[in-house]
């Protein structure tokens, strides 16, 4: 993820520059496309940063457990080790919930699709 994300962001900007050169539309169309590319790039970077920050502790705990005498992370002998495991697992769970929140906050299209999904599945007529 750390190596491919900068490549993807670079390619998004490069593709946007190509579109801008080929487009014969007005400046407002270009500005809107530039803003959309910036939003997508920012969302991609935010998801990757959140992933690294929230998943790194549980990865370190698993690596430490594998290199120690413990066979599993659930064989904690000290209270400090147990607290560290639980905190790392809590951060891992936060990663998944923050991704959803980032998409809801950052993308109008995602919000609209969630509303449509809820309307179809649950039968809501109007959702604020």
TrEMBL record:
The chain crosses the membrane at residues 40-64. This is G-protein coupled receptors family 1 profile domain-containing protein. It is a multi-pass membrane protein. PANTHER family: G-PROTEIN COUPLED RECEPTOR (PTHR24243), THYROTROPIN-RELEASING HORMONE RECEPTOR (PTHR24243:SF233). Keywords: G-protein coupled receptor, Membrane, Receptor, Transducer, Transmembrane, Transmembrane helix. One of its GO terms (cellular component) is plasma membrane. SUPFAM superfamilies: Family A G protein-coupled receptor-like. GO terms for molecular function: G protein-coupled receptor activity. Its main location: membrane. InterPro entries: GPCR_Rhodpsn_7TM. The keyword Transmembrane helix applies. It comes from the Eukaryota. It is found in: Membrane. Residues 1-103 form the G-protein coupled receptors family 1 profile domain.
